[in-house]
Specification:
By secondary structure, this protein is of the alpha/beta class. It has two domains: 4-10 and 273-395, Alpha-Beta Complex (Aspartate Aminotransferase, domain 1); 16-265, 3-Layer(aba) Sandwich (Aspartate Aminotransferase, domain 2). The chain is 41% helix and 13% strand. Strands 2-8-7-6-5-3-4 form a seven-stranded mixed sheet, with helices on both faces. A three-stranded antiparallel sheet has the order 9-10-12. It starts with a strand and ends with a helix. The relative contact order is 0.16. The structure holds pyridoxal-5'-phosphate (PLP).
Length: 396
């Protein structure tokens, strides 16, 4: 029996096309993209080609795409970069209660420096109320950061509505789109997004690659309207200092193979995303329907409709999900209880607590995330195994 991978929200395998696109950039086109000779030129071409593909994909201009080393890094540059550009204490930040730790912990750090944080709660489906975001705005607010889609429960946020509010009040709006990017259509202009983070490995690109969209014009203008003068080129304050790469916002010799692979992953997403989402959404709903009707005491976490096409987060009454994950692994099924990065730790999920689950319910919650290699037979096998294991677990 081949193993069944249902943990695509944790990471995805790099697509064959991505690996093939990267290959020539390790040794053949190995030049430093800043060099003036032909070796450098070939590397530069690879990087700028990727930048254009990515910019087109989200309705941005190429100059506003910055390559980074991960989704975590993009989130840190966005949040810290905005607050440090503001250069005043306290600066006020607004986030939702279900942000990824790379936003949440960054804000906690900024709080420890004397900055102010408002964490806006979410409803029982995990959705934030744009009205509550607006109500939290103060004179000192420099940033609103709300994720596009949640990594644990898949809930999609009303990004365009929040974008309008941010625009109306002249506040920089960042979205952590790491889970949504490459899965659902995003347009930074229509949705009035000023800063956006994404990571290659969540959509069949290479690990250790990230991107940050920085609308430098809007960021500078909005901070200026609040009496803040920013650095002319970067708009945000860089977190590292060095060379002029990536407009000075992310100095270091570029990861050319990684960037080219990221560009290829975006190209694949551009061409196949609509079909994949449709297929995965059907499989997801088929699985949710069967699990809820066949396993007594089961309940869905998150929003029924406003949900990533590939996310299932479900709890089974009186079943410890951590034990279930280990048992499933022994049967060749890979999934997760809570987010991958926190499932090694004993800490209960902050996201599931934020939607109002009790500690017991949090411990009962299992995440299954589908991807382009998931087949209906896999789902049928997993449901059969789940029924069997849950019955056995409940008897002990
Ligand atoms: C995975 C993830 C991140 C972090 O991305 P890395 O590239 O792993 O650092 C940030 N936000 C969300 C919503 C994620 O799912």
């Amino acid at each position: 029996m081949k193993p069944i991978y249902l943990d695509y929200a944790a990471t995805t395998p790099a697509a064959a096309e991505v690996i093939a696109a990267m290959q020539p950039y390790f040794a053949e086109n190995f030049g430093n993209a800043s060099s003036l000779h032909d070796f450098g030129f070939r590397a530069r071409q690879g990087i700028e080609g990727a930048r254009r593909i990515i910019a087109d994909f989200i309705g941005a201009t190429a100059d506003d795409i910055i390559f980074t080393g991960s989704g975590t890094e993009s989130n840190n540059i966005a949040v810290q970069g905005c607050v440090f550009a503001a250069g005043r204490v306290p600066a006020h930040i607004i986030i939702s209660a279900v942000e990824h730790s790379s936003v949440y912990s960054t804000c906690a750090f900024l709080e420890s420096l004397g900055h102010e944080l408002t964490v806006v709660p979410v409803d029982s489906c995990g959705m934030v109320d744009p009205g509550a975001i607006e109500a939290a705005i103060k004179d000192t607010t420099v940033l609103i950061s709300v994720q596009y889609a949640n990594n644990e429960i898949g809930t999609l946020q009303p990004i365009a509505q929040i974008g309008l509010i941010a625009e109306k009040h002249g506040i920089v709006f960042h979205t952590d789109a790491v889970q949504a990017f490459g899965k659902i259509p995003i347009n930074v202009n229509e949705q009035k997004i000023t800063l956006l983070s994404a990571a290659g490995h969540k959509f069949y690109g290479p690990k250790g690659t990230g991107l940050l969209y920085v609308n430098r014009h809007e960021t500078t203008a909005r901070l200026a309207a609040r009496g803040i003068r920013t650095l002319p080129d970067t708009a945000l304050e860089p977190l590292m200092y060095g060379g002029p790469q990536e407009a000075g916002l992310r100095p270091a010799t570029e990861n050319t193979p990684g960037i080219v692979g990221l560009g290829k992953a975006v190209e694949l997403a551009r061409d196949t995303m609509a079909g994949s989402a449709e297929r995965e959404r059907k499989l997801r709903d088929y699985a949710i329907g069967r699990l809820l009707s066949e396993i007594p005491g089961s309940a869905l976490n998150g929003h029924r409709v406003e949900r990533l096409p590939n996310n299932i987060n479900i709890r089974f009454e009186n079943v410890n999900a951590y034990e279930l994950v280990l048992l499933l692994d022994r049967h060749g099924i890979a999934c997760s209880s809570g987010a991958a990065c926190s499932s090694q730790s004993a800490k209960p999920s902050r996201v599931l607590a934020a939607i109002g689950l009790t500690a017991q319910e949090v411990a009962e919650s299992l995440r299954l995330t589908l991807g382009k290699y998931t087949e209906k037979e896999d789902i049928d096998y997993v449901i059969a195994k789940l029924s069997e294991l849950i019955t056995a677990l409940k008897q002990v």
